[in-house]
Design brief:
The chain is α+β, with helices and mostly antiparallel strands. The protein is built from nine helices and 17 strands. It folds into two domains: 54-310, no CATH class; 315-423, no CATH class. It has helices at residues 70-73, 79-95, 157-169, 220-233, 270-281, 316-325, 356-369, 375-382, 390-405, and strands at residues 5-11, 17-23, 99-103, 113-121, 127-136, 173-179, 193-194, 206-210, 238-239, 246-248, 255-259, 262-267, 286-291, 294-297, 300-305, 310-314, 411-413. The two termini are 47 Å apart.
Length: 424
């Protein structure tokens, strides 16, 4: 292995050059800025901007948009933060020996890739950190050549609610773990070649031969899940037949739930949770997020009062997001999701040209997670997906008005005696 440090550089249009030393535990990759300052293809091949892209809710902080390319990231107000995030991601990729730089094979078309930029927020809706991810464009993979099986499970929302309710009922400890760059721990069984990252291009027609299941590959999630499941089985945790992402070690506890790269440990014994953490840290880079008091998991905000056996789940940040997404953040709230005298236009009315299915889909996700109070209204709206008109759109906006006035509603679990769960 070559332990030399490799210098990466990116330049913005103002002419300032940012240099960052990135530890190279693999080979001398020799990445540098693309010729003529070209940062590669900045078009998003998967989708076009529909005008309804969500801006994140950041509490008292003003809304911050997320860039769609390296060039855009380095021209904005947060260029230094995005540059730091870019180099941090590259350091992680090279440190895990994710690829090697090779000549482009004549008989293969390399998989394309792009940078994805994401602003992470804390439970109060304020900016927590800037995050960059180099992802493969999985839609450019060839079936049978670049991938085979791709299915990977994720914990069900009803499992999350049930297990957390049991934790509250029995006053169990809830502890969160986060696996850093989890997918890079997955092993590839196929030979995959990928283009070099936009903005970091080595001359000479080189491509990257992947050693690890980088984000965006169709089989990446499956490869990571298989590695993680095996690691848990090594310490005698077994899968539930009801949910493959729920693990237990005994008839009552402890339990572990897996949500992609986040793990929730639930049990009475802190010693066991420490043993699990040490075992996982021996295989992966794992952050201990500590005992849950108020933290985010799987799209929920968890608010746990262990002493009194009370747990609250809410998605107020998500509600604020969809309000802004559909231009309803300043709408007047109302008391009911749907009025009993709602009037529907006839079938001959002009079809709805607004993103009705998109809005109903967002509401369906919300009502199946933490807001059962809108279930009836959403069910009525879902019946008209194929033939919606303006009356249906107005009714859907009425649900948003109701959510505006009830944005702080939570799903609450209380302690009751004699509650036990056995995993089968």
């Amino acid at each position: 292995m070559d332990d030399r440090s490799q210098e990466y550089s990116i330049s913005n249009e103002i002419g300032e050059t940012f240099l960052e030393k990135v530890q190279n535990n693999s080979k001398d990759l020799g990445f540098q800025k693309a010729p003529n300052g070209n940062f590669g293809n900045t078009e998003d091949d998967e989708s076009q901007d529909s005008g309804y892209v969500a801006n994140q809710f950041v509490g008292i902080i003003s809304t911050v948009s997320e860039p769609r390319s390296v060039e855009e990231a380095l021209k904005g107000n947060f260029s230094e933060q995005w540059l730091e995030a870019l180099n941090r991601e590259l350091e992680s990729l090279t440190g895990k020996c994710t690829w090697e730089l090779v000549d482009r094979p004549q008989d293969r078309i390399p998989v394309r890739c792009k940078w994805v930029f994401k602003i992470k927020y804390n439970v109060n809706g304020q900016i927590d950190r800037f995050k960059c991810r180099l992802v493969a464009k999985g839609f450019t993979q060839k079936p049978g050549l670049d991938y085979d099986e791709v299915f990977s499970p994720v914990v069900r929302h009803n499992t999350i609610r049930t297990v957390l309710a049991v934790a509250a009922a029995r006053k169990l400890k809830i502890r969160l773990f986060d696996v850093v760059t989890a997918f890079l721990n997955g092993e590839l069984h196929e030979e995959i070649f990928m283009e070099q990252p936009p903005g970091f291009v080595h001359e000479g027609g080189k491509v990257l031969k992947l050693r690890k299941a980088i984000y965006g590959l169709k089989q990446a999630s499956r490869a990571w899940n298989q590695v993680l499941v095996q690691a848990l089985k090594e310490i005698n945790f077994s899968e539930s037949t009801a949910d493959p992402c729920l693990f237990s070690k005994g008839p009552n506890d402890p339990y572990i739930m897996i949500y992609v790269d986040d793990l929730v440990f639930i049990g009475e014994d802190e010693v066991t949770s420490n043993e699990v953490l040490l075992h996982l840290q021996g295989k992966f880079e794992v952050r201990d997020l500590g005992q849950v008091v108020k933290q985010k998991f799987a799209g929920f905000t968890l608010d746990y009062d262990q002493r009194n056996g009370i747990i609250r789940l809410n998605q107020s940040l998500y509600v604020q997001t969809i309000l802004e997404r559909f231009g309803m953040e300043s709408a007047n709230p109302r008391k009911l999701p749907m009025e009993k005298d709602t009037k529907w236009y006839t079938a001959t009315a002009e079809p709805c040209k607004m993103p009705y299915m998109e809005l109903v889909g967002a509401l369906m996700y919300l009502c199946t997670c933490t807001r059962p109070d809108i279930s009836f209204a959403v069910g009525v709206l879902a019946r008209s997906m194929a033939n919606a008109n303006e009356s249906h759109w107005n009714a859907a906006k009425g649900v948003l008005r109701y959510l505006k006035g009830t944005i702080n509603y939570v799903l609450k679990g209380l302690m009751y005696r004699g509650v036990f769960v056995t995993c089968h």
